[in-house]
Amino acid sequence: MQRFLFLFFLLPSLLLGQSPDQYFEKIRHQTVSLRAFFSQMPKGGDLHHHLAGSIYAEPILERAIKEDFWVNTRTYGVSPTPGIGPKWVKFSTLTKQNRLTETKINILKRWSIKDYDPSDHPSDKLFFESFDKFWPAVDGYIKESMIEIRDRAIKEKVNYIETQFLPVEVDIDIEDLRQQNGSLREIALQRDSKKCQQILEGMYNQLLERGAVEKVKTFNQNTVQKLHKEAEIDSKDFVMRYQNFVFRFLAPADAFKSTVLAFLSSELSPLVVGVNILAPEDGETSMKDYWLHMQMFKFCKEKFPAVKTSMHAGELTLGLVPPEELTWHIDEAVRVAGANRIGHGVDIPYEKDTYGLMRYMMKNNIAVEINLSSNEFILKVKEDAHPFLLYREMGVPTVIATDDAGVLRTNLTEQYVLLAKRYPSLSYSDIKHLVYNSITYSFIKEEDVRKQILTKMKMEFEKFEASLPR
Prior knowledge:
By secondary structure, this protein is an alpha/beta fold. Helix content is 54%, strand content 11%. It contains 22 helices and 11 strands. It has helices spanning 2-16, 20-27, 31-40, 57-66, 91-96, 100-111, 123-138, 142-155, 181-190, 193-209, 212-230, 252-268, 284-288, 290-303, 329-336, 354-363, 372-379, 388-393, 405-408, 412-422, 428-440, 447-467, and strands at residues 45-50, 70-72, 78-79, 88-90, 160-164, 239-247, 272-278, 308-313, 341-344, 367-370, 398-400. The strands form 2 sheets. The chain has an 8-stranded parallel beta sheet. Strands 3-2-4 form a 3-stranded antiparallel beta sheet. The longest helix has 21 residues, at 447-467.
């Protein structure tokens, strides 16, 4: 009788098997099993994503070889035309000299972290310098790059990508506005926000008078909309939307022009869902003009309140910059520039009001894009030195992202593997919630598109969980 009762109570669990949470805990320390698990798991969206940095180096290189580009055999940058100096050689010449194979190996080491040797090149230097080296072979092939990213995302069970696409480049003469560069930098030293906003207002009106709106409409139609349509991006399986971006290394007048155009583009297009600012945050101009850049974003947010912004902020750590520079970047991006999301946010422990700032972010649903591989390679920050758990403890929303999957030789699946191995306090249910965050905190403008993605994700999760070993 007792044996019968034991089997009676055990039978439901035998039929149902272990739950997804139970199976996940069972494999948590088995890397191969985790990779199988997360490769099959729906992954929602990738919200911190650079178009150029997400293309793998191999197809870019093959294109450069096919087009018979010139390559600098010292820096391993490529160009359709020769640069200055004797180091520039055509790929066809390298083939004749039996040097092509060796050159290809070295190029992959400079265009990505493949076979990275820390004694050979500083990690942050290699990462940020790689873009200029391969960009000439990407420029003119944006559509092909978009298709590569789309196809890989679908195979990886990624439903949505919000990629940092292109700067808005239109022909507006601002030579006279550049005379304000000195005044703006002097005002920045005084931290005179009122005077800064007044100068920006005058510059903004000049940009409008010079046809900024019509020129941006043309850019949206002839670049964003045209490429999106030709690449056949959207489908029942996948959606891509775009962020315009501003380079941090530009002089003030050029940075402001770029910011205004980026906001205008997003205001006028359903495909352009936000604006970002990028380039190494510890760069000389980036640091010198950081306050100015936040004032520019503040100005544009007030002009275009519906435009969302996701801003690289706090991609810094102790030793990279003087300690006092770690205390205010995220705060300025959030409280002054009005960022809706933050990319990286690594220096949050050093901010002058760490807990108050995180409470503000929690209250205002300002999510942080967590880039584990990127932060480890560029900043040497990982595991318990990374603020991921601190953000969670304070209730700040987080999403998991790749940053530059091509340069970093990674994908979204691997980010979840790292997450599971490094943070054992996270359950499968927690991770599933992070996946849903990637759509909840996306900047998708069309609510029917957001609903379509969430409905598909729900079905995919049900199918995935039913497929797990019982």
